[in-house]
Write a structure and sequence with these properties.
Layout: E1 16-25, E2 28-38, E3 43-47, H1 54-62, E4 69-74, E5 81-84, H2 95-106, H3 110-123, H4 139-152, E6 157-161, H5 169-185, E7 188-192, H6 196-202, E8 205-210, E9 213-219, H7 220-225, H8 230-236
Parallel strand pairs: 3-7, 3-8, 5-6, 6-7
Antiparallel strand pairs: 1-2, 1-4, 8-9
Helix pairs in contact: 2-3, 2-4, 3-4, 4-5
The structure holds adenosine-5'-triphosphate (ATP).
Amino acid sequence: MNDMLQVHTPASIAPLELDGLGFTHRGQPLLSDLSLRLDGCRRTLVLGPNGAGKSLLMRLAHGLLPPTHGRVRWQGEVPRQAMVFQRPVLLKRSALANLTYALAVHGTPRLRRRTLARQALERFGLGALAHRPARVLSGGEQQRLALARAWLLEPRMLFLDEPTSALDPAAIKAVEDAVTDFHWRGTRILMSTHDLHQARRLADEVIFLCGGRLLEHSPAERFFTAPATPQAAAFLRGELVW
Ligand SMILES: Nc1ncnc2c1ncn2[C@@H]1O[C@H](COP(=O)(O)OP(=O)(O)OP(=O)(O)O)[C@@H](O)[C@H]1O
């Protein structure tokens, strides 16, 4: 790890409160009256059927979308945040240039950028691909590049919206290892997934959405062994829930 990337103490991340959060589009409520609090340095996995509002929740919480109801409130200093999407948004430049550009925007001195970017590429197993155009990389490589970019920005809060849904097992493992490394570095994680096994592997706690409503927010062990709602119980049994 390079000298500019510091290890943070989890206690120093401001809690995030979602207070009566809602999003209505053309009169249709897509997410309704959602209140919860995220604190500490937990890995919170967002689960729910298609269209439940998982991506919407992530975008609202990250501030990419203004809510139509309620608010997103940081109880303290707003932390540095990053988001990783299902399909990475990469610039039409080399893998290395994608990272040096992100560092430039971040305000890293020019002389440090290349070294840091190189280290991050190595860290995510992309060293040999530094000069390849980012957009011709495979899906798994692109996702690792997106994670390397997020890593360089040292987020205290990382949002991941179904980051492994289009990947094969080896690429999924790389993403899950990265999520674990972010966690150990002191980053709070909010991540949506369709993959129950993945949620079991990674979650400290679970948010379960269904039909645009928050049905559960509980410690992972409790959610998986004794879900509180029939919808979550059915979802865990693999039944069709919507
Ligand atoms: N910006 C937006 N404007 C209007 N409607 C939206 C917007 N974003 C999402 N929606 C709608 O909100 C609903 C919930 O979408 P969302 O993508 O959050 O679901 P999801 O739980 O992530 O589903 P999936 O598992 O299929 O990805 C969908 O009907 C979607 O079309």
